[in-house]
Design a protein that fits this description.
- The complex is a heterodimer of chains A (169) and B (80).
- Chain A has 169 residues and is α/β, with parallel strands linked by helices.
- In chain A, 40% of the residues lie in helices and 15% in strands.
- In chain A, strands 3-2-1-4-5-6 form a 6-stranded parallel beta sheet, sandwiched between helices.
- The longest helix of chain A is centred in the middle third of the chain and has 29 residues.
- Chain A starts with 11 loop residues before the first strand and ends with a strand.
- About 7% of the residues of chain A have low confidence.
- Chain B is mostly helical.
- Chain B folds into 2 domains: 39 residues, no CATH class; 40 residues, no CATH class.
- The longest helix of chain B has 15 residues.
- The chains are: A alpha/beta (169), B mainly alpha (80).
- At the A-B interface, helix 1, helix 3 and strand 6 of A face helix 1 and helix 5 of B.
């Protein structure tokens, strides 16, 4: 079954970690293509951005609720928020490692669970889990979470995947 | 060392709306990495990685830029 088409013009896009870096570049590009972009970030740089802590399910849920209240739906979730500490594996502080796992893995899971049911109800949608950029394969901070996060797209049941489309960048 | 700009990843993400490949590698030439990793014997891979200097990503960072980012993560991590 072919994936449903999503027109960028007018698509409602939620971008986590969208205040800077890749998240901001992605939000800007979606905006330039005519999409309605909602940025969420732990530290929002602009007044338009919403505060979201992707490590907390309630916080992610509140972000999603706000976007749906404002725009009626979410067509695309860019699960971008991620951290990349460059510590030595054996000596890295547990709190830093824990944060990496909570943001880079749990952040994506929270996002999928919060957004996908709306996509399934709405009939179409896609989510994009972008943290495991393979380009950074040699960065240890990422490599520790990449094997998990890059395969999360394959976890939801196929019946739901027919409408909600997974992409891992 | 070649690096990828935020705009390159953004292009790949926005482009994925049309193409819908489940996994996209940026830059593209690294897409074959898993195959290479599976096919090439480990000692050869280790030697190859040492020759191309794969630890440069850890050792040749811009420390002033990096320090600000590390502080942000440390602030987020405090109390976890």
């Amino acid at each position: 079954m072919p994936y449903p088409k999503i027109a960028l013009d007018g698509a409602v896009v939620a971008v986590t970690g969208g205040a800077r870096g890749i998240g901001k570049a992605t939000a800007d590009l979606f905006t330039a293509r005519g999409a309605v972009v909602c940025v969420g970030d732990l530290d929002p740089a602009s007044a338009d951005a919403l505060v979201v802590d992707v490590t907390a399910r309630e916080s992610f849920g509140a972000f999603v609720d706000t976007v749906i209240d404002r725009h009626g739906r979410i067509d695309i979730l860019v699960n971008n928020a991620g951290v990349m500490p460059l510590g030595d594996f054996l000596s890295e502080d547990d709190a830093i490692s824990r944060t990496t796992l909570e943001v880079n893995v749990w952040g994506l899971i929270h996002g999928m669970r919060a957004v996908m049911p709306h996509m399934v109800d709405g009939g179409e949608g896609m989510w994009s889990t972008s943290p495991p950029w393979r380009a950074s394969w040699w960065f240890r901070g990422w490599r520790s979470t990449t094997p998990v996060s890059s395969r999360l797209w394959d976890c939801p049941p196929r019946s739901e995947r027919n409408t909600a489309v997974p992409v891992s960048v | 060392m070649p690096t990828v700009d935020a705009e390159d990843v953004a292009q790949a993400i926005v482009g994925s709306v049309r193409r819908r490949h489940a996994e996209i590698t940026v830059p593209r030439y690294l897409a074959g990495w898993d195959l290479v990793n599976a096919a090439v014997p480990e000692p050869v891979m280790r030697l190859g990685r040492r020759l191309i200097g794969d630890r440069r990503a850890l050792t040749s960072v811009q420390h002033d830029v990096r320090a600000a980012y590390d502080e942000t993560i440390a602030a987020q991590a405090s109390g976890r």
